């Protein structure tokens, strides 16, 4: 069994329930002791910027800021697509803790030869 998990997320707050599910999976992996990486691309890159991931997606859903705090506390990290960030003209200085501007090659290097369990949203 692999000890790494990668969650690829391309959806942003236009589908907050999907974002919530992705974070629930990521939090579960990280809190279970797996090294966990979220690769954020397309609209999801906005979630890696301060003050964006706010609110609750649905009645009974946990708040996105709470999920993100749990993910960070469990050691989860984010790789944020540099092409997407530049295309959206986002200020790299406003990244949240644990987020790095990194593309697919660093993601594959992080995965390494041992592989990873993956989820895509």
Strand order of the largest sheet: 4-3-2-1-5
* Regions with little confidence, pLDDT below 50 for 5+ residues: none
Question: What class would the helix/strand composition place it in?
Answer: alpha/beta
What's the CATH H-level superfamily name?
A: DsrEFH-like
Shape: globular
CATH class: Alpha Beta
- What is the arithmetic mean of pLDDT? 95
In short:
This protein is of the alpha/beta class.
Report on the structure:
By secondary structure, the protein is of the alpha/beta class. It has a single domain, classed as DsrEFH-like (Hypothetical Protein Ychn, Chain: A). It is 33% helix and 19% strand. The protein is built from 4 helices and 5 strands. Helix 1 runs parallel beside helix 2. The protein is globular and about 40 Å long.
Could you outline the blueprint of secondary structure elements for this entry?
Layout: E1 4-9, H1 16-31, E2 35-40, H2 64-73, E3 77-80, H3 82-87, E4 99-101, H4 104-111, E5 117-120
Parallel strand pairs: 1-2, 1-5, 2-3, 3-4
